[in-house]
Design a protein that fits this description.
heterodimer; A: alpha/beta; 11-stranded mixed β-sheet; 10-stranded mixed β-sheet; 8 helices; about 20% helix; B: alpha/beta; Rossmann fold; 4-stranded antiparallel β-sheet; globular
Amino acid sequence: MTTFTESATSFISSRPDSGPRGRAWSGFESLGLPTTADEVWRYAPLSELDLDRYLVPATPTLAPSSDFAESLSSLAASVVRVVDGFLVDIGDPVAGVTVDVDTTQSTLGGDDPLERYANDAFALANAALCPATVVVTVSAGTVVDGPIVIVHSANASASLPRTHLVLERGANATVVEYYEGGDGAIVVPVSEYRVAEHASLRLVTYQRLAPTTWHVARTTGLLERDARLSQAVLGMGAHYDRSRNDAELLATGAENELRTTFFGSGAQVHDFRTHQFHQAPRTRSTLLSKGAVADTSRSVYTGLIEIEKGAKRTDARQTNHNLLLSANAHADSVPNLDIRENDVVCAHASSVGPLDALQRWYLESRGVTRADAERLMIQGFFLEMLDALPKSLARLVEGDVSLALASVPVSA
Amino acid sequence: MTTLTIAGLRVAVGGTEVLRGFDLTMHSGEVHVIMGPNGSGKSTLAHALSGHPAYEVLAGSVMIDDVELLSLSATDRVRAGLFLAMQQPMEVPGVRLIDVLAAAGAEPAGLLGRMADEARRVDLRPDLLERFVNVDLSGGERKRAEMVQFGVLRPRFAVLDEIDSGLDVDALGAVARRLAASTTEWGCGVLAITHFRRLLQELTPTMIHVVSGGRVVATGGPELSEVLERDGYEPFRELNPL
């Protein structure tokens, strides 16, 4: 029987860039999988994680995508299809947009993935084992009408997709990254979003993997002068859903808006991590995280705002609200600040509790039952995340979210 | 003919009794107007009728025909036929009005069209209803959005808590005409709480009730509003021995 390690080393040796991949793999092996003794992995059911259940695929396993993915695709300016991390379709041509693969592994994290991801075993595994980085570039000054949809299907037992979105100077685009499949699989996506001067990227990540999936994702926004990244992350599926969303505000005037939400049911764990790193003056970040946990599910939100010395007149705000929908559900919220500059505005707020009783009464006083009022309000967490999308696309995702929520017993 | 009967209603807010034996009877198709000074209990009546959690009913009865509303949930009170248009309608982020109305029992087929029709009747831009409930709407727009809910849900009785505040003269006229039309369109009973007579210029009241000190102290026809206009509420305070 082939082990995960055997499939990994065989995959690496078959690639032209086996050198850097091998170094990342060595990094992964020497670091080892985290344990719950690591504070940042405290809530992950790592004892259940047996890598030998998964094999690294040499080729993509093609399968029809879901009806929802097809509907999503029908509303896109262009659809990029990625299966098990392999780019299988670059979509319709869009002026000023190129879709390609980079096989040199120099695309992410600088020349050496060991630098940025040195302490992240899963990101190192991704650097070693991703088929190739999918690179979507929007050329300088290009304004893309309509969203670019990237459909990530996980059909193999291990998928390690790697995505690199590049918005050159003054470019403007909306991108949806959608994840589906992953039954009994591990899915480890790593994405970087490079937003150059005066460029603006609106991004929606919708994770709708199977309830058996291990999903360990990491995204990093790298924002240049006056760049803007508006990112929404919706975590719906997966057994263990870890979503780390970082932004580095590298130059003056950069702005990051991050909204994350999750809905936990069954025995799911949603583990959301954020890090807004302000490295230059007059940078702004606003972060809103809202989530709900039902049944015996649990959630963790840990957010760090870091402000470098000299990043004067930075404005950073972080809000986290968690909703408990059953007595056996649990939510933890851990906001952190690391501020090395005085001339800043920085605020954070977090809460764990029930729904707003007056808002609920208002809906009830329209004739809505309590259960429906609560469902609408929880669904609202997700709907608020979809502002960036064109209306037709937002409605489609809304419909999918409400379908998913309809089956879950809710008693706030 | 349907009858709304409020009898001996006593309501406390924060431990203080504000309504102290409120009585009012009205029938479908009628327009009743409640007027009274600030603090007389008008808004407390509206909130208590629709089951606001902060209002404690101490005693009394509110019936639609032979159905006691006070023992019902807020939801079931609306479904029994009593709708409240609020003085300060709440924002509910992430929730759309069309979904609220569908969940409230409005027929989904053609709902968007009916909402747009109702919006136009009260001079509200229909596209504002696509926003999350009351989010980023002005005070006057919220009032008109309440009227859209009213028009779609077609309640047997509607309590309108200062529907006129925040509206300019033109919008006020449109709202008054919408309410007046409802009395014939489906025999709605309209119970309007107001400070101002101008609502009554296009919404002819069947009865006016003057409220002071948490109870009705005078009841009369439309002419009563002229008395109030001339003399204010002061003479009526004396009718209410404390």
